[in-house]
Specification:
65% of the residues lie in helices and 5% in strands. The chain is mostly helical and 441 residues long. It folds into two domains: 104 residues, D-Maltodextrin-Binding Protein, domain 2, CATH 3.40.190.10; 232 residues, no CATH class.
C-alpha cells in the first residue's frame, strides 16, 4: 500500500508542478472569457449595410403598409419596371421589389421578384419575405371580408402543464423536461470529454515511461499492477484538480467579463427580438420563465444526482483509463501502430455519446434503459438520465454492474500491462493482447 501511495503521489505531483499544466489550467478560463467577449461583441454588432428598395406594387397588395426597418428603407414608386431597370444607375436604389397581383386568394403559394446587381443577404431576404407575408395576409383578409379579430383568436397558444395523478405525487412544471434535458446533456458531454482526455493522458504517460525505459527501473521495486493502478489514480487526481479549479475560475471569469463589458440578459433579449423573423418576447413572461427555471433547477434532488455523477465519473474513468493503460503498454514509439488497438476502445465511447443524445430526448426508452446498465455505455448514458428520476432498480443495477466491470477491467488490463510494459520491438495485435491475458505470473 505504501508503494502504491508513492506512485500516486509521484504521478500527481510531477504533473501538477509542470509548467504546461499550470499554464493550461490558468489560460483555459481566460480563453473562455475571450470567447465570451468575442461572441458578445459579435451579437452586439450592428450592420452598416444600408439598402434602399423601390417597390412596384402591381396589385396594390401591400397598400403601402410595409414599414422601414433598420438599415432597410422601402419606397413605393409608380414607374414601369423596364424603365427602372434601364435607368437603374440614375436612381438611388439598391434593388427593385416587384409585388405581383394575387391571382388566387385561396392559394398558399405566392412569389415576389427582387431585382438587384447585389445578391440580398440572408437577413434582408428573410425580413423581406416576412414583411410581404404579413402584407399579403392582411390583403387576403380584407378581400375575403374576414374579421381580423376572430382570425387572431384562432391563433391559440397551448401550454402543457404536467400534473401528477396522485395528489401526493411529485409535482412538475412545464420546464421540468427542458431543465432535466439540459442538465443530463451537460453531464453526458462532461463524461464523454473526461473519458477521452484523461484516458488518453494515461496512455501517453505509459508510453513515455516505456519508451524512455524508466519503467524498467520502477518495475524492479514495485509490481506492474501497482504501477498501472497508481498511474491511473494519480492522473485521475490531476484531472479532478484541474476540473475543480476550472469549476471555480470559469464562472468567476465569465461573471467578471459580463460585468466589465456590460453583457446582460436584457441586451441579448433585445437583440433576439430585433432579429428578422424572431418572435417577440414579453419581458414579464421571460422573467417569469427564468424564475420558474431557477426554482425547478433548485428543486432537483442534487443530494442524489451529484454523488451518483461522481460515482459514474470514477467508474467510467477507471474502466476506460485501465484499457488505455493496457493499450499504452503494448505500443511503441510509432503512434500509428496503436491506432488499431485504440479503435475498439473509442468506438463504445462514441456510440455511448450518440445514445446519450437519444436518452435525453427519450430517457425511459428501451435503448436508454439498457444502455444505462451496459457498463461500456453507462458512464455516459446514466448521468444523462439522472435528472429524469429513473427507477431505483435501474440505478442500482447500473451502479453494481459498473462497479464490478470497472474492477474486472482494471484486473484484466493489469494482466496485459505486466507483459506489454517490458515488450519491445514487436508490433502487437489484438490477438496478441488476448494471449497476454492468460500468461502465467
Amino acid at each position: 500500500m505504501d508503494k502504491l501511495w508513492l506512485i500516486i503521489k509521484r504521478e500527481y505531483l510531477t504533473r501538477v508542478k509542470r509548467r504546461a499544466f499550470i499554464i493550461a489550467t490558468l489560460l483555459t478560463p481566460l480563453a473562455f472569457a475571450v470567447f465570451f467577449v468575442v461572441v458578445g461583441l459579435i451579437f452586439q454588432y450592428e450592420s452598416d449595410d444600408t439598402r434602399r428598395i423601390a417597390i412596384i406594387d402591381e396589385g396594390n397588395v401591400l397598400e403601402k403598409s410595409i414599414k422601414d426597418e433598420k438599415n432597410l428603407y422601402f419606397k413605393f414608386v409608380n414607374v414601369e419596371l423596364q424603365v427602372l431597370r434601364d435607368n437603374f444607375d440614375e436612381f438611388d436604389y439598391d434593388g427593385i421589389l416587384v409585388i405581383p397581383k394575387v391571382k388566387d386568394l385561396m392559394s398558399k403559394n405566392y412569389t415576389v421578384y427582387y431585382y438587384s446587381d447585389k445578391q440580398p443577404t440572408l437577413d434582408i431576404e428573410s425580413l423581406i419575405r416576412e414583411r410581404v407575408r404579413e402584407g399579403v395576409k392582411d390583403y387576403k383578409i380584407a378581400a375575403l371580408h374576414l374579421d381580423p379579430v376572430q382570425l387572431e383568436a384562432l391563433d391559440t397558444k397551448v401550454a402543457l402543464e404536467p400534473e401528477p395523478i396522485d395528489e401526493m405525487g411529485q409535482d412538475a412544471s412545464k420546464l421540468t423536461g427542458a431543465i432535466a434535458a439540459g442538465i443530463g446533456g451537460l453531464m453526458g458531454v462532461i463524461m464523454y470529454i473526461v473519458v477521452f482526455i484523461y484516458g488518453m493522458m494515461v496512455m501517453r504517460s505509459v508510453m513515455e515511461e516505456k519508451t524512455s525505459r524508466i519503467v524498467e527501473v520502477m518495475i524492479s521495486s514495485v509490481r506492474p499492477f501497482q504501477l498501472m493502478l497508481g498511474k491511473i489514480i494519480g492522473v485521475g487526481a490531476v484531472g479532478l484538480t484541474q476540473v475543480a479549479i476550472w469549476a471555480i475560475l470559469i464562472p468567476t471569469v465569465v461573471l467578471a467579463t459580463s460585468l466589465v463589458f456590460g453583457f446582460d440578459s436584457d441586451t441579448q433579449m433585445q437583440m433576439a427580438q430585433s432579429s428578422p423573423g424572431a418572435a417577440e418576447i414579453n419581458p414579464e413572461d421571460a422573467e417569469a420563465m427564468i424564475a420558474l427555471a431557477i426554482e425547478e433547477f433548485n428543486s432537483l434532488n442534487w443530494w442524489t444526482i451529484l454523488p451518483l455523477f461522481i460515482f459514474y465519473f470514477l467508474g467510467g474513468y477507471f474502466l476506460y483509463a485501465s484499457l488505455f493503460a493496457a493499450v499504452g503498454s503494448a505500443m511503441g514509439d510509432d503512434l500509428g501502430e496503436g491506432q488499431s488497438l485504440t479503435i475498439p476502445i473509442t468506438i463504445p465511447v462514441v456510440i455511448a455519446f450518440y445514445i446519450m443524445i437519444v436518452a435525453v430526448q427519450a430517457p425511459n426508452s428501451s435503448l436508454a434503459v439498457w444502455s444505462s446498465i451496459f457498463p461500456l455505455f453507462s458512464p455516459i448514458v446514466m448521468p444523462a438520465r439522472l435528472a429524469f428520476h429513473p427507477p431505483l432498480w435501474e440505478v442500482l443495477a447500473s451502479a453494481i454492474v459498473l462497479a464490478a466491470s470497472s474492477i474486472f477491467f482494471v484486473w484484466l488490463s493489469g494482466r496485459i500491462y505486466r507483459v506489454g510494459i517490458l515488450m519491445y520491438g514487436k508490433k502487437v495485435t489484438l490477438k496478441e493482447l488476448g494471449k497476454w491475458m492468460f500468461y502465467r505470473d
